[in-house]
Amino acid sequence: MVDEKKEKLKPFLKWVGGKGQLMEKIEKFYPFDQNINKYAEPFVGGGAVLFDILNKFELTEVYISDVNFDLLNCYNMIKEKVKELIEKLLILEEEFLIKSKEDRKLYYYEKREEFNELKTKRNKSDLLERAALTIFLNKTCFNGLYRVNKKGHFNVPMGDYKNPKICDEENLTNISKKLKNVDIVYGDYTKSYDFIDENTFVYFDPPYRPITKTSAFTSYSESPFGDKEQMELGEYFKLLDEKGAKLLLSNSDPKNEDENDNFFDDLYKEFNIERVEAGRAINSNGRKRGKITEILVSNKKELNNHERNRFL
Question: What contacts 2, CB < 8 A, 6 or more positions away?
């Protein structure tokens, strides 16, 4: 099952809430063996878990989806047209890096406006250009945020990076090879239902429930994801459990702010809830950046070392 190839994939985007720092904890829940040979990630985001699994296992089928069209468009363009995408990114990188700080700012906002115009037009002929601009803006914007306003326009200001790596040609090429057998679906998590069966490991990384009223400042798409949506996802989790799939879900821990907030403890009371330490990636108050806990919800207890070694 384990793929020993040297080419190691890594996320091609910086993504708020990326799971790189939690990989050691998440991988303990990997159930892959002769029976569990499919993987589904219905909120793929930056894909840290996806790429870790693609690095380590050869699976029969893999499914990813998201409601962020431009994110999914990047995955599709990397899968189908990686050479053309790399060519466009190399041009953007060269044009950006040779400029002065002030000229970089002008160039960034020019490209951001161009990107939003392409989003508005929604022409299929522009998808490659949209993907290149998505990656460029992600690598040069503030903290790698993907945030849109009510009109769906990307509105993140430019970041302050000396020499950002805009085009990682080797990584993009390696990702393209691995994505050839991955089913990439634009849409919400419920579209994964028919794919998922008792042979599937499913990882859910939905938009996190805000810990405080002031922390809900980022919108990744025009679609809201409030408590109602969290509860609907909880019901879907139960449906997949009944199907016999192996499940893992991550989310914020409300108890960081309010010990009496049992929202997730009640929602997932039938399942295993583990609290794990994580770094707070973004906070406007520097003194509030530090270690907090997040939750991992599973319908299978964490494997011990002996069990894990059997699968590896």
Answer: 56, 57, 58, 312
